[in-house]
Write a structure and sequence with these properties.
6-stranded mixed β-sheet; Sulfate adenylyltransferase; single chain; globular; 3 domains; binds zinc ion; Rossmann fold
Length: 489
């Protein structure tokens, strides 16, 4: 379960009802569903409005298709990559790969063969008719003489090529002798699926959702029954903790929501939290950092991917103190951790003791849920969720998180110029005080205390002194230790 290795994961799709099948068969028509192989770990999720709009914008740009995906059930599946990389699944087929290009600082959509077949009848540009070349086509590069006619395309963009019955997902190269690279070959057009509401997916998977719910509830009760401790639910404003809150509330008579207010939440999250607290969790306990984050940042530099002091400072310590004050005899905390989320979480168990908070028992009732199941469950319950998910954010955390994707940082730049401006001013102040190059702040070097090789290469290209783009002064030593550890393994 939740395999982060190479290879594929199989999920199922009902071709009749146009919905994912999460259990043994489609609850609407009884079809066992057709297999779809997706990249591991396979944390499938729905493409919400903002993501659909982004996909439509790219498709319109490449193929002039207008708003073609609105209302259809499109799913995304996160895979390994430099930055944001998502498989795009339309009607149970691999349509393309949506990714963020760090060099061009833009989103791209690489078309897969089924995507090319679905767009064939809709594209008004980005198409090419080829002189049928002999032999095997996939992976082949053709020159301009093979082009019989074309509706126009730009280098680097996806192209839909046809040769007789054959359809190809290609990429424009546009160099002398190399006009197009043919990536995948198929036959004939595919129809786009009819618009389907997500409620249909919930209906078709009701039995499965009920089973998941009752398993989670009995898991919770089985542990808590013997403990006789007060029960809290860690609530972050994200989708996973929302589901966890619902499950814990169904399992027990009394649960108290716990929230760490970092002071660094998105305005959207703040509004959502206020509403949630008012309507569903009036006795929510809120922990605040003991010191000012911005002062701490002047002192130690910004939190980075390799030194996330913010987490301890803004969340763990305030929560630990609050729990120790409120529940000196121990407490149960129900959390929304899932194995599919990350390699670090792929081994979590139902019950874990918190090494940092003595007396706290942590429970992970949704550890085996995929994001798709979390969403289906939320839609089933009808509870309000954080609107950032509708704006193409996959995770909702602090708005300046060093671990967030560059693609999400770009969204934040558009949505909240004031916040990003404040962050950049604070960064450049820290940079100046420590004699760092201005690129440390402007080119994302600040995200690491010791930047990784890819960032060191960027520094080289920008002709920057390595000492001027990092906060850590022991990075050489750390690099050697890391290599030693790897060798010993
Ligand atoms: Zn069905």
């Amino acid at each position: 379960m939740a395999d982060f290795g190479h290879g594929k994961e199989t999920v199922y799709w009902c071709p009749r009802c146009h919905v994912p099948v999460m259990g043994a068969r489609c609850g609407t028509c009884g079809d066992p569903g057709m297999e779809l192989n997706i990249a591991r770990p396979g944390d499938l999720r729905p493409a919400m409005e903002g993501s659909i709009r982004l996909i439509d914008r790219l498709l319109d740009h490449y193929f002039g298709t207008g708003r073609i995906m609105g209302g259809r059930t499109v799913m995304l599946n996160k895979m390994a990559g430099e930055d944001r990389t998502d498989e795009v699944i339309v009607d149970g087929r691999l349509f393309g790969v949506l990714r963020y290009d760090l060099l061009d600082q833009e989103h791209r959509l690489d078309l897969k063969i089924d995507g090319a077949r679905m767009l064939l009848d809709h594209a008004i540009r980005g198409t090419v008719e080829l002189e049928p070349p002999p032999g095997h086509l996939a992976g082949k590069t053709v020159d301009a003489t093979a082009v019989r006619s074309s509706t126009g395309y730009q280098p680097g963009q996806p192209v839909i090529a046809t040769a007789g019955e054959r359809v190809m997902a290609a990429v424009a190269v546009c160099e002398p002798g190399r006009e197009l690279r043919l990536r995948e070959v198929g036959r004939g057009a595919l129809a786009l699926p009819p618009p389907v509401r997500w409620a249909r997916m919930v209906e078709a998977n009701m039995e499965h959702l009920r089973a998941m719910e009752s398993r989670a509830i009995s898991d919770l009760r089985s542990v808590v029954g013997n403990l006789r401790l007060p029960i809290t639910v860690s609530f972050s404003g994200g989708k996973d903790s929302l589901v966890t809150f619902v499950l814990a509330s169904k399992a027990f008579k009394r649960v108290t929501a716990l929230y760490a207010d970092t002071g660094l939440e998105f305005p959207e999250s703040r509004a959502y939290m206020d509403r949630f607290r008012r309507e569903y969790a009036p006795d929510m306990l809120i922990a605040h950092p003991h010191e000012d984050f911005w002062r701490e940042m002047r002192r130690r530099g910004p939190p980075t991917k390799d030194d996330r002091w913010c987490c301890r400072f803004c969340k763990l310590e305030p929560i630990a103190k609050l729990l120790a004050d409120r529940f000196p005899r121990g407490v149960v905390t129900v959390e929304g951790n899932r194995r599919y989320e990350s390699f670090n979480r792929s081994q979590i168990r139902l019950r874990e003791n918190n090494p940092h908070v003595p007396g706290q028992v942590r429970l992970n009732p949704i550890r085996d849920w995929r994001a798709m199941e979390v969403w289906a469950y939320i839609w089933w319950t009808g509870l309000p969720y954080n609107q950032l998910y509708e704006k193409d954010y996959e995770r909702v955390g602090c708005w300046m998180c060093a671990s967030c994707l560059e693609s999400e940082w770009q969204h934040t730049r558009h949505r909240h110029q004031d916040l990003v401006g404040r962050w950049e001013r604070a960064l450049s102040k820290v940079g100046k005080e420590r004699d760092l190059a201005s690129e440390w702040a402007s080119h994302g070097f600040w995200r690491w205390r010791c930047p990784p090789p890819k960032m060191m290469k960027l520094a080289e290209r920008l002709e920057l002194d390595p000492r001027q783009i990092r906060l850590g002064d022991d990075c050489e030593q750390e690099r050697r230790q890391r290599m030693d550890r790897r060798r010993r393994r």
